[in-house]
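Handoff note, outgoing to incoming analyst
You'll be picking up this chain. Sequence as last confirmed:
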Amino acid sequence: MPAPLLAIETATDVCGVALMEDARVTATLTLARPRRHAEQLVSLIRDALRYGGLEAGALGAVAVSMGPGSYTGLRIGVSTAKGLALAVGAQLVGVPTLEALAATALPAADPGDVVCAAFNARREEVYAAAFRVGADAGLTPLAETTALPTGDLPTWLPVQTAGRLWLVGEGAPAAAEALAPTWGARLRALPPDAYPPDAAAVARLGHDRLARGETEDVGAFEPFYLKAFVARRNTRSAFERLPF
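Most recent structure output, in case you need it:
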């Protein structure tokens, strides 16, 4: 019987935790409030373990959404996952964020369809990745994870000969505008609020990766940022920022 797995999702505004036992997700907690990850993630982990009736030491693996995504969110999620894995001697599994997001669309998609997961990046760009849905409802990479202007999406993801295109994620509305002229009636954009990033998807993909022996070196593992972090400079003086 495999040891329990804990999954963490913090790559976007969603902060989520899921617990998997015996290849089944038994608890999932989600907080959809921006910039609360640092305050709430550890509490969510504690609650998930409590709901599962487990101590942290019972965990055999920790799976974490590894990016791309929010620089701060990824740092919080990955550092917490590494610290927990080290503390309890669990294995660490990195799960590509866009693959986990694409997996949330699988209940709607059919074999042969394409799922494109997208969410907003800086400067009117999107992070995007595309996958083909297999006969076993698995995902096979079709277009490499990238960051690009929405207007370049049709070149990055040419029309396929068969199947529909499902768009999922907060970048889906902008991606739909760009891809509709080429995909036409075969395009389906899923409502971002109904298909948010999901720690349960991270748990399932993490479980599959763990079974294939795809684990990370806890000490060396870093988030997959894809784009370099650029700090914002405040153009107002300290005097102008005073509250009066």
